[in-house]
Structure formats: C-alpha cells, structure tokens
Amino acid sequence: MIKNILLATDGSEHALKAAKYACSFMELNPAVETTLLFAYDVANQYVMGADGALFVEPAILEGNM
C-alpha cells in the first residue's frame, strides 16, 4: 500500500497528468501523506542585458508569481 506521495509540478501538461494520477491514489486511501513540490526556472524570469540593465517579467512586478 502506498503511504507517501511526492508530487512535483512545474505547471506543464505532464505535471497535470501526474497530479490527476496522484489524486486517484488519494481518493482510494485518504490517509496517504502527500507532499507537493513546485519547481520553476528562475533564470527565465531575470535577464541582464549587455548594458547591465536588469529586465524582469511583468508578472513578478505585479505580484502574480
């Protein structure tokens, strides 16, 4: 019997499929302990230009990240 689930997600379609699969286990056994890990690439959010300017994704400035 599965006792622990580590569900890692990055927001991709594959991660969504894995989450649905994990939910099916949790429905069968509500006592299963589940840990959720959300991963994202910080390097894609901050980019420094050749002149030293720092460009930031607008969503970060708006507090949506």
From TrEMBL:
Which Pfam families does the annotation name? Answer: Usp (PF00582)
- Chain ranges of the UspA domain: 1-52
Could you tell me which InterPro entries the record lists for this protein? Rossmann-like_a/b/a_fold, UspA
Judging by the UniProt lineage, the source's domain of life is Bacteria
Question: What protein is this chain from?
Answer: Universal stress protein family protein
- This protein's species is Heliophilum fasciatum
